[in-house]
Amino acid sequence: NKSQSPYGRVLLKLSGEALGGEGGCGIDPDKAAFIAGKVKDVYQLGVQVAVVMGGGNLWRGANGEKMGMDRTTADHIGMLGTVMNGLTLRDALERQDVPARVQTAIQMNQVAEPYIRLRAIRHMEKGRVVIFAGGTGNPFFTTDSAAALRATEIEADIVIKATQVDGVYNADPKKDPTATRYTQLTYKKVLEDRLNVMDMTAFTLCEENDIPILVVNFWQDDDLLRALQGDHSVGTIIT
Ligand code: UDP
């Protein structure tokens, strides 16, 4: 199965919101099916696919803290949320005949495999999508950082930050009609101009390990597929 993409192995970061129903909250099975379809498209390019799921549709540690909770406990709850999302995506993928496994950074052996790097790589080599859940396994981190970390560990060729916007703009396109999209950016330019791509921990990890970041609209037509086939007219690539 020859790859139709310049990328051999990709890591897709999906926010929990993508799975949410009304207002981006909870788990909507129809959204899960849609996301699985998109992941399947990428998979069918012949690319090895790993996915990091966020959990913001269910819980965010920072919100718990604002309500007076201990932050570490609140973050533990958040990480558990990402496991719920990961299981949802695995189920949706399997129902579309895409073999998939969930590996979690927080051990819960009855529910998902523990994160084992070489086993994750083996799964992908065998044509299985690997879903990394549980974030980094540590409080005070984000799933963006988990994406950067796992991408580095599994030697992914690119991190795909799936969003609802078409890429990185020089201003907020929702507020400023003159805002234009960058097709390409350097890590340096992103830092200098304080452009919002990923949180700083995640971004720095990608920069230090020379992992390109592709910001692309996950929802719009076949933007994701085109970007993964090297089409620079969609999304923004940061190198
Ligand atoms: N979280 C954490 N450590 C991690 C990743 C996530 O503690 O390594 C917790 C944190 O509380 C966060 C929540 O899980 O608010 C959900 O993750 P995130 O906000 O990154 O999800 P997303 O915004 O991508 O949906």
TrEMBL record:
<keyword id="KW-0547">Nucleotide-binding</keyword>
<dbReference type="InterPro" id="IPR015963">
    <property type="entry name" value="Uridylate_kinase_bac"/>
</dbReference>
<keyword id="KW-0021">Allosteric enzyme</keyword>
<dbReference type="Pfam" id="PF00696">
    <property type="entry name" value="AA_kinase"/>
</dbReference>
<feature type="binding site">
    <location>
        <position position="56"/>
    </location>
    <ligand>
        <name>ATP</name>
    </ligand>
</feature>
<comment type="subunit">
    <text>Homohexamer.</text>
</comment>
<feature type="binding site">
    <location>
        <begin position="136"/>
        <end position="143"/>
    </location>
    <ligand>
        <name>UMP</name>
    </ligand>
</feature>
<feature type="binding site">
    <location>
        <position position="163"/>
    </location>
    <ligand>
        <name>ATP</name>
    </ligand>
</feature>
<feature type="binding site">
    <location>
        <position position="169"/>
    </location>
    <ligand>
        <name>ATP</name>
    </ligand>
</feature>
<keyword id="KW-0963">Cytoplasm</keyword>
<feature type="domain" description="Aspartate/glutamate/uridylate kinase">
    <location>
        <begin position="9"/>
        <end position="217"/>
    </location>
</feature>
<dbReference type="GO" id="GO:0005524">
    <property type="term" value="F:ATP binding"/>
</dbReference>
<comment type="similarity">
    <text>Belongs to the UMP kinase family.</text>
</comment>
<comment type="pathway">
    <text>Pyrimidine metabolism; CTP biosynthesis via de novo pathway; UDP from UMP (UMPK route): step 1/1.</text>
</comment>
<protein>
    <recommendedName>
        <fullName>Uridylate kinase</fullName>
        <ecNumber>2.7.4.22</ecNumber>
    </recommendedName>
</protein>
<feature type="binding site">
    <location>
        <position position="172"/>
    </location>
    <ligand>
        <name>ATP</name>
    </ligand>
</feature>
<feature type="binding site">
    <location>
        <begin position="13"/>
        <end position="16"/>
    </location>
    <ligand>
        <name>ATP</name>
    </ligand>
</feature>
<keyword id="KW-0665">Pyrimidine biosynthesis</keyword>
<feature type="region of interest" description="Involved in allosteric activation by GTP">
    <location>
        <begin position="21"/>
        <end position="26"/>
    </location>
</feature>
<keyword id="KW-0067">ATP-binding</keyword>
<dbReference type="InterPro" id="IPR001048">
    <property type="entry name" value="Asp/Glu/Uridylate_kinase"/>
</dbReference>
<comment type="function">
    <text>Catalyzes the reversible phosphorylation of UMP to UDP.</text>
</comment>
<keyword id="KW-0808">Transferase</keyword>
<feature type="binding site">
    <location>
        <position position="55"/>
    </location>
    <ligand>
        <name>UMP</name>
    </ligand>
</feature>
<dbReference type="GO" id="GO:0005737">
    <property type="term" value="C:cytoplasm"/>
</dbReference>
<keyword id="KW-0418">Kinase</keyword>
<dbReference type="GO" id="GO:0006225">
    <property type="term" value="P:UDP biosynthetic process"/>
</dbReference>
<feature type="binding site">
    <location>
        <position position="60"/>
    </location>
    <ligand>
        <name>ATP</name>
    </ligand>
</feature>
<dbReference type="GO" id="GO:0033862">
    <property type="term" value="F:UMP kinase activity"/>
</dbReference>
<feature type="binding site">
    <location>
        <position position="164"/>
    </location>
    <ligand>
        <name>ATP</name>
    </ligand>
</feature>
<dbReference type="InterPro" id="IPR036393">
    <property type="entry name" value="AceGlu_kinase-like_sf"/>
</dbReference>
<feature type="binding site">
    <location>
        <position position="75"/>
    </location>
    <ligand>
        <name>UMP</name>
    </ligand>
</feature>
<dbReference type="GO" id="GO:0044210">
    <property type="term" value="P:'de novo' CTP biosynthetic process"/>
</dbReference>
<dbReference type="InterPro" id="IPR011817">
    <property type="entry name" value="Uridylate_kinase"/>
</dbReference>
